[in-house]
Amino acid sequence: MTKVSLITGCFNGEKFIPRCFASILSQTYNDLEVIFVDDGSTDTSLKLAETYREKFLQKGFSFKIVSQKNMGFYPQSGIKISTGKYITTLDIDDILLPGSIQKRVDFLEENPDFSAVRTNGAIVQENDNSKPISYFMDDFYESKNVFEDLLEGKTTNIPGTYMVCADILFKYYPDKIIPMNRFTQNLQILLPVTYQRKVGYIHEILMHYMRHNEAFTADKNDYFTTKKQYESFKEVRKSLLLRMNLLTSERQNKLDQTYNSIFLELAYKFNKKDEFKNLYKTLERPNFESRVKHALFSRKKLSTFLVRLEGKIKRRKH
């Protein structure tokens, strides 16, 4: 069989380990290298993970534990010691459904010209994973260019949905050292392997993404804190483009436009009128929703906007 490296990890994630590890043990694929990275937990995460060693070994899996001190980026530490032909990651609070590994391996083995494969998944509440709140984008499979979609934030990069070919990843990182960042950690893995390569899609729910009541949301942060996080997302994308020698003036402008649109939405949400107006001026082609919000923030222009909108609607009817 072909070895797969599955990397997971946590900081103080003891309450999630039993459920996550149970989902790994439920896999029908046996040549699995499970790598758990503990990021300096102060609870019993490290000890609890160790108690699963025998269960993994009985299943035929190999099991490695990495203990580090508050580095934040668990895939990087796991990837350095991985030996699998294929690599996948999984957040400790999420779960894989039985057959997830097997189906992804089967796809890549049957399609050697593909660099990665991804699956659909369901978003569920932490205390009730029997009723999905929603699913990942149903138009996942329609993506013609996963690299561009990842770059522009048009598709998800959720751990547990992707499996990548290690040899292609290590062409970009021959020393097996992935640039560290506490945000968008999967982009550092996915952008290199999706550039100018085929990426498969399995239209099945093969993982559950847990939504927590205490999880980060923009609603719980002020405008500048939230904007700073999105700025870090942008910086990761820019640094990866630089590393891949792909940061042209056209791509830089596209990146600026994408994130200025995001910042515009944040400014509207947090009622930052001056920020909104300044950002609106930077957009080359503001969409309909942005134009409506701009009109609402500029009351003098609202009546003019509504008159024009009414005229367009009438013309479409005739």
UniProtKB/TrEMBL annotation:
GO MF term set: hexosyltransferase activity
Organism: Halpernia frigidisoli
Domain Glycosyltransferase 2-like: 5-141
SUPFAM superfamilies hit by this protein: Nucleotide-diphospho-sugar transferases
Protein name per Swiss-Prot or TrEMBL: Glycosyltransferase involved in cell wall bisynthesis
Keyword vocabulary terms for this entry: Glycosyltransferase, Transferase
Domain of life of the native organism: Bacteria
Organism classification: Bacteria, Pseudomonadati, Bacteroidota, Flavobacteriia, Flavobacteriales
Pfam family, one: Glycos_transf_2
